[in-house]
């Protein structure tokens, strides 16, 4: 095979891979919301209500220590500091989507109960937001100093290096978040095993994978922003 053909094949592979990554970055959230709407219409077969599900797990797993708070924001369900924030829509339907979302947030509650993963992530986010303000300043000042001769050249490189380090911290933050979300999903499936049928559990697993893909999309958006074809993601 000639060098020309190797280059052509490499370019084609890169283009295909780039298109795939751009598709993940741009359409994962829309795919998740589409799945959410579909599964929100399918009630679980046991007939158990979401409140019964929450209360049972709260007392059986968390000794009744979780505080349940109702919010209006659709898909704004979250966990933090012993509080479970669930949307009115999630609580009001005993759908596969609602049970899966609740179990996932309870998975975060288990992480909080068993270790310091969420605390470390919170610290990294606060650190990232503080340093993220300096990123454009480091890059701009670094580039300017490079053109001021040998006296300032080293300082320019140092500032550019600092900017690069902040960007790498952002990437690490995203990957750490994905790791935490994956672990919470695994815990969610364990919590759901006694409440869903095998077929419902398979659907829940796929739904959680779709949800996790939105975090990969967030990661890819800050990497592929240079293409102009990707949505712009926040560093922190």
Identify the notable features of this structure and list them briefly.
single chain; globular; mainly alpha; 236 residues; 3-stranded mixed sheet
Structural class: mainly alpha
- Rounded to the nearest angstrom, the radius of gyration is 22 Å
Number of helices: 8
Tell me about the biggest sheet?
3 strands, mixed
The overall average pLDDT, rounded, is 92
Q: pLDDT below 50 for ≥5 consecutive residues: which ranges?
A: none
**What is the approximate shape?**
globular
Helix content: over 70%
H/E element string?
HHEEEHHHHHH
CA-CA gap between termini: 45 Å
Cross-sheet strand order for the largest sheet: 1-3-2
- What is the count of β-strands? 3
| Strand residue content | 5-15%
Structural account:
The chain has 236 residues and is mainly alpha-helical. Helices cover 72% and strands 6% of the residues. It contains eight helices and three strands, in the order ααβββαααααα. It has helices at 3-39, 50-61, 88-92, 96-114, 117-132, 135-146, 150-192, 198-223, and strands spanning 67-71, 78-80, 83-87. Strands 1-3-2 form a three-stranded mixed β-sheet. Helix 4 packs across helix 7, helix 6 runs antiparallel to helix 7 (150-192) and helix 7 runs antiparallel to helix 8 (198-223). The model has no long low-confidence stretch (mean pLDDT 92).
